[in-house]
Amino acid sequence: MGNTRLGGKSIILRLEIQTDMINFGQVASVIFAAGGDIVAIDVIQTSRNMTVRDLTITVTDSVDIGIITEAVKNMEGVRLINISDRTFLLHLGGKIETQPKTPIQNRDDLSRVYTPDVARVCMAIHEEPDKAYSLTVKRNTVAVVSDGSAVLGLGNIGPYAAMPVMEGKSMLFKQFGGVDSFPICLNTQDTEEIIAAVKAIAPAFGGINLEDISSPRCFEIEERLRKELDIPVFHDDQHGTAVVLYAALINALKLVGKSIGSIKVVVCGIGAAGIACSKILLSAGVKNIIGVDKMGAIAAGNQYENRMLQWYAEHTNPERVQGTLREVIHGADVFIGVSAGGILSREDVGHMADQPIVFAMANPVPEIRPEEIEDIAAVIATGRSDYPNQINNVLCFPGIFRGALDCRASEINEEMKLAAAEAIASAISEEELNPLYIIPSVFNQQVVKAIRDKVVQAAIRSGVARRIPREYR
Ligand SMILES: NC(=O)C1=CN([C@@H]2O[C@H](COP(=O)(O)OP(=O)(O)OC[C@H]3O[C@@H](n4cnc5c(N)ncnc54)[C@H](O)[C@@H]3O)[C@@H](O)[C@H]2O)C=CC1
Ligand SMILES: CC(=O)C(=O)O
Ligand SMILES: [Mg+2]
Fold it and tell me: Which part of the chain is the Malic enzyme NAD-binding domain (predicted)?
């Protein structure tokens, strides 16, 4: 089993119970006392003195599944046959597959989809390369490319371990945006090799979604690919995150009655997400942003080897405040965490300004757990699916790519990102807006459509659309 604190919120225990020694009620009470909640029971086999049952048990994050399994093993008359983790079961054999659009039922079909007839289609594309958009998967397919160097907040876990996240992103692309995609995890973390690999695979794709590539390499990789490719290249951890963060902030500020130009924002974690979130806030009119990384506040006057941190120091922190997160958080109106789990304390939030807004977005463990501060923060959000207010780039990338592909945009530019943020923010009406509902759910079917429409319009306005969808002709 994997790390139960990260993923295993629900397990299935297969138990053999000697019913002449112990009854099921006793087994259930031991599991309950160890912190497990039995939510389903399946009887697998039964005889006069013995029964085999599958117990589906859910636990909260703070419960150690090992304690439950030990308690079960220590019961006389009970044998633990097997433990399965529902999350691991869901990943068996991977989460996605390729499906042909039409069946190949006879030789005639075979000769059309494959040789000899396919050759005519190949030659049509050879004569007019643009036809790749109408005659291949390019029109609707995005590559989700990672090098495994900054996977969620798990760090540099490499390309194999990154695959489950990238497969997950592909599922989300399809389910929420109708966009096909391939997860591609590269076995290199060299900037030039990544650029070359992405350029080499680009012909098959209508767009490139870079994912979980650590800073500062992610900036050069994206910048270069944007220049050197004619399809949209979008680093999701930068721009997807920034778009959703901005949408959430627009709505949170309405609740606390503060204006964007007057707030003090502390951004913790000045990597891919932190820099992009700060940039979008600067262009939205936030004047006082203080970025904090492991070495403390980023301030002009300090020397940074990383050119992005140098840029950051020159464009933020107008008062050149120095210090640790604990020190600079005093008086902040907004905390934005895109760093690491558990690094913000209740005491820190207590030192923020009135009606503090806390967006603890590190995954899978947020900078602070909402339950620790729900009585002192005005608005709380995380990146997770199991708390209210999920600020997660999943709310952006399916819709923004849907729009970009539909108008065959050559890039995803600032106008398109701002349009996406506004579409997300405006999905919640003034009447609906409340501290537990500042951002729509990804299951809100209006959102992707709204983002797509606004993104297409912005692409047309800004001159990057290479095809005008019928409804705008
Ligand atoms: N909710 C969402 O939609 C998203 C959340 N994230 C989360 O944000 C975090 C960072 O992701 P990326 O920017 O892609 O990674 P990154 O590796 O580019 O940047 C992380 C930055 O955080 C800093 N950091 C780490 N521990 C810190 C600490 N204790 N104090 C201050 N700074 C610290 C690192 O030095 C680095 O500069 C991850 O936990 C990730 O899961 C990232 C993208 C989207
Ligand atoms: C959500 C996401 O992309 C991340 O945490 O890296
Ligand atoms: Mg990511």
Answer: 238-460
**pLDDT digits over 109-143, tens only?**
999 999 999 999 999 999 999 999 999 999 999 99
What is the distance between the alpha carbons of residues 356 and 303, in angstroms, rounded to a whole number?
31
Active site residue 73: no
Q: How far is the CA of 57 from the centre of ligand 2 (A)?
A: 28
* 261 class by beta-carbon count within 10 Å (0-12 exposed, 13-18 middle, 19+ buried): exposed
Which residues is 297 bridged to in the sheet?
292
The Cα–Cα gap between 248 and 287 comes to 18
**Whether pLDDT at 8 is above 70:** no
Q: Helix, strand, coil: what percent of the chain each, to 5?
A: 45, 20, 40
Q: Which of 243, 249, 339, 390 to mutate to test the pocket of ligand 1 (most atoms within 8 A of CB)?
A: 339
DSSP string, 66-127: HHHHHHHHTSTTEEEEEEEEHHHHHHTT-S-----SS---SHHHHHHHSTTTHHHHHHHHHH
Write down the catalytic residue from 73, 114, 160, 294. 114
- Is pLDDT above 80 for 106? yes
SS3 49: coil
From the CB of 152, is ligand 2 less than 6 Å away?
A: yes
What one-letter code names the amino acid at 332? A
Task: Please name every residue paired with 79 in a beta bridge, in sequence order, or none if there are none.
Answer: 16
CA distances from 178 to 171, 210, 277, 399, 434 (A): 10, 18, 27, 9, 30
Could you tell me the two tokens for 306?
């990383």
pLDDT higher than threshold 60 for residue 72:
yes
In this prediction, does ipTM exceed 0.90? yes
Sequence-distant (6+) residues with CB within 8 A of 378 are 252, 255, 256, 355, 356, 357, 435
Q: Tokens standing for 103?
A: 């069946």
Which residues have C-beta atoms less than 6 Å from ligand 1? 150, 152-153, 214-215, 237, 241, 268-274, 292-294, 338-340, 343, 361-363, 383, 391-393
Measured CA to CA, the distance from residue 402 to residue 181 in angstroms comes to: 12
Q: Is 169 a catalytic residue?
A: yes
Q: Which ligand is nearest to the CA of 243?
A: 1
Distance 337 CA to ligand 1 centre (A): 8
User: Are 143 and 198 a contacting pair, CB within 8 Å?
Assistant: yes
pTM: predicted TM-score of the whole model, two decimal places: 0.89
